[in-house]
Design goal:
The complex is a heterodimer of chains A (340) and B (104). In chain A, 81% of the residues lie in helices and 1% in strands. Chain A contains eleven helices and two strands. In chain A, strand 1 and strand 2 form a beta hairpin. With 104 residues, chain B is mostly helical. Chain B has two domains: 31 residues; 70 residues. In chain B, helix 3 runs antiparallel to helix 5 and helix 4 packs antiparallel against helix 5. The termini of chain B are far apart. Classes of the chains: A mainly alpha (340), B mainly alpha (104). Chain B: It is a multi-pass membrane protein.
Chain lengths: 340, 104
């Protein structure tokens, strides 16, 4: 009964997010829209805590969860209430960074969960298949090995897909986190504009390194899992290199986030924050895909697409194009560097 | 290749949701007045805080002796909660300000 109530709650949550965004875009209803989305979020959070089942079991560690929620609520309310009206955009940037960091952390935990897969899990698959095979034998003239192979290849496909989503969530979340912190620092004046000659080349290189790292990680994890399946007992379970690659990608993503925002001028910061906001939306949606969780998925993707459009609208309102804001600044930085 | 195709096939419903949500997101806010840009950004910021649900699941699944998952999950819950709660409260304050302006 719990899970079916939870799926209804998630449906309600998704609808409140859509309604909330819709109402937020009209002056008369904006405040109510915000409250409606907040109510939906509240429902979704508490529904998850009490009704979510994983592998047929309810969640545990309630004391940790509630302690985290309590600390987060106190800090969030205090920060939001104390902040001066003029400092609100930078506060939003900080909150956005925290969401990004949250998504990245989830990815890190899930990655560790994935690569500490017990090799025996593949051996454990065999008995149920044997049993099923016995039952089906009279009906089906299939061979057992094919059944086992199918199940194993399904699991492998799943593991690969999960890894891809984990990586995406981590990279986007980390870029968003680092970028938001820099944007926050720039708006409150603690970080100055900083650019050097050839910065866009460095940025491209860092991005290329992230992509290469991701591909290497996907391939090497895939071959490792396959080796594990082929000979579960005698594969030495050493994931050190794979861990190393994963954390290097995390580090590079943070570096990229910093490099991405550093050269952009302070006046363009709201546009950048809006862009990073939609990044975090996508990172949240990756989490939704990973957990098969519709409310995270719709919430994240909605913010991702609405945020992107909003970013473009904000640029238009400032009579600039997004390309101008993002790339023009590099040109400006270069010109300044050349002049200096 | 087979792996990828079967993965996509297994998750085809989620992929539908993603694509429809992309269009919905664009439609829903395409006619927003410029004064509401910042509050809308802030509201959207609070909504993507829904990532907190992932953090809760991580935390709630973690075994008692898996300290890495417990510590990172705990941090993620705190950060996500700040995102959600702070986001909604800041948005409400911004919009309250608009209301005040209107009355004057």
């Amino acid at each position: 009964m719990g899970p079916s109530i939870l799926s209804l709650i998630y449906l309600i949550g998704s609808v409140t997010f859509i309604l909330g965004l819709k109402m937020l875009s009209k002056p008369d209803t904006a405040r109510k829209g915000n409250l409606i989305a907040a109510a939906g979020m509240f429902l979704a959070i508490f529904g998850t805590i009490f009704l979510y089942k994983s592998d047929g079991q309810y969640l545990h560690n309630y004391s940790w969860i509630f302690a985290g929620l309590l600390i987060g609520t106190i800090v969030g309310v205090l920060a939001a209430k104390k902040v001066k009206m003029t400092a609100m955009p930078e506060m939003v940037s900080m909150f956005n960074g925290m969401g990004g960091a949250c998504a990245a952390l989830i990815s890190v935990v899930e990655f560790n969960h994935l690569v500490t897969l017990d090799p025996d899990i593949f051996l454990k698959l065999i008995p149920p298949v044997e049993k099923l095979h016995g039952v089906l034998q009279s009906v089906l003239e299939g061979d057992k090995n094919r059944l086992v192979n199918d199940m194993v290849s399904n699991m492998l496909g799943d593991a690969r897909g999960q890894l891809l989503i984990i990586l995406l969530g981590m990279i986007i979340g980390a870029v968003s986190f680092a970028g938001s912190v820099i944007a926050w620092g720039k708006l409150n004046g603690s970080i100055r504009d900083f650019s050097f000659k050839g910065q866009h080349v460095v940025n491209l290189l860092v991005m290329a390194a992230i992509l290469v790292g991701a591909v290497v990680l996907m391939v090497s994890t895939g071959t490792k899992l396959e080796a594990m399946v082929a000979a579960p007992a005698d594969t030495p379970v050493s994931w050190t290199t794979i861990h190393l690659i994963f954390y290097t990608i995390l580090l590079l993503s943070i570096v990229y986030g910093v490099l991405f925002v550093l050269p952009i001028g302070g006046a363009d910061m709201p546009v950048v924050i809006s862009l990073l906001n939609s990044f975090t939306g996508v990172a949240a949606a990756c989490g939704g895909f990973l957990y098969n969780n519709p409310v995270m998925l719709t919430g994240g993707i909605l913010v991702g697409s609405a945020g992107t459009i909003l970013t473009i609208l904000m640029c238009k309102a400032m009579n600039r194009s997004l390309k101008n804001v993002l790339i023009g600044s590099f040109g400006g930085g270069q010109a300044a560097a050349a002049a200096g | 290749m087979d792996n990828i195709l079967s993965f996509l096939h297994q998750h085809i419903e989620l992929i539908y949701i993603i694509i429809l949500s992309v269009f919905l997101g664009v439609e829903v806010i395409s006619r927003v007045p410029a004064v509401l840009h910042t509050p809308l950004m802030s509201g959207a910021n609070a909504i993507h805080g829904v990532v907190i649900i992932g953090a809760i699941i991580v935390m709630g699944k973690a075994e008692q002796d898996n300290y890495l998952a417990l510590i990172l999950g705990f941090l993620a819950v705190i950060l996500g909660t700040i995102n959600v709660v702070g986001g909604f409260v800041v948005t409400d304050r911004m919009l309250e300000m608009f209301k005040g302006k209107k009355k004057q």
